[in-house]
Amino acid sequence: MSEILVTGGTGLVGKYLRQILPNADYVSSADYNLLDMFEVKKMFSDLKPKKVVHLAAKVGGVHHNIEEPVKYFEEIHGNAWNDQKLKGKVRSWTKSEKGYTCTQDPLVNFCKKGICVKKKFGILAGSKGSYPVLTNLRKIEIFEEPEYEFDVIKPDGIGKVTIHCRSVEHLNDQRKRRNAISKDAGFLPPLIKGDAEQTVMDELYKTQTTVSPPIGTSPKEKLHDVLHAKINGPRATTDAAFKSGSVLMEDGYAFFKFDKFYDRLKAKDWKYKEEKTGRIMVTTYRECEIQFLDQKRFPVKDKGKYNSSTKNIVQINIKSFEEIPIYHDKIKHQTEIM
Question: Rounded to an integer, what distance in angstroms lies between the CA atom of residue 99 and that of residue 38?
Answer without folding.
Answer: 17
